[in-house]
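FW: tagging you since you asked about this chain on Friday. Here's the raw sequence from the shared folder, copied in full. Didn't touch anything.
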Amino acid sequence: MLVLLVPLVVIPVVLLFGYAGCNQVFGLDPTTLNFTPINVEAEGESIESIRISWAKASSEPVTFKLFRITPGSEAEFTTDATEYLDTGLTPNTEYTYEVLAIRTDDFRESDRSESATGRTLDFMPAFSATLTTDQAGIGGFCLVQRIEPVRLVRSGSKVRLVLQGSTAGNLLIDRATISQVATGGNVYDSAVDLVEIATAVSIPAGQIVELPVVTYTLDQTKPLLVAFDISPTAGMGNVRFVNPVPATDASMHFRAATAEAGIQDRLPSAANPGAPPYNASTSIYLVQRIDVG
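HL: got it, structure written out here
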């Protein structure tokens, strides 16, 4: 019976729309079949972004819908272009994508493309040091670590500090900041680019701690300051350092009963020019590594 009905359906369609209309009615229009995007590629562009590109499979006007299908981070994006920069991603992580086309005349969607996977870039070290010695009794001190350009091997716009605590006791850092050196004043004064990295950083004995990533332009051609306010809490002022290092490489500037990590103009300052200056040492404290991306 079904075979007998087919001519009854097809013949009227041919009479009304022609043979091309028959294709459209039964979903066989060749212009709707092969417009799934092709040549999909995904490539890491930075520590937090991947660029996805593809090609149109036909000349008809279309827009695109991009799918990030990585479990736990699924997302959808729309674009008229044949590429898209996916941002806000996790460093050194793989993400997988698919894309489909949407016809602008009837909004029909193509099948999804084959998937493409890319990996965000990883952080790279801009500075490293091997810390060898423990020291106690630094509670309430402000430490300003100056690092000279000779020890900085690359620049970057994202920065991650890796700190090494004492093997003998705990450490609590009230505040940590990063900056370039001011053009005037003390050699440990911060420039206007001073950025807070973290507060209330606890480093248990023998541990290495990565601080949160911050947006900061580290320029390897300029001296760098990393400043710490060590908590005055009893028993929480244990640090690790290496000494001596060449003065052309780095220097530590420190002052007791002081909390100036977040201040650009440190003592003696314009407001208090008679204050005693920080003490200096050819040492590197706490900073095991500075990574950039």
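FW: The chain has two domains: 25-119, 124-292.
HL: agreed, and The first strand starts at residue 38 and ends at 46.
FW: great, closing this out.
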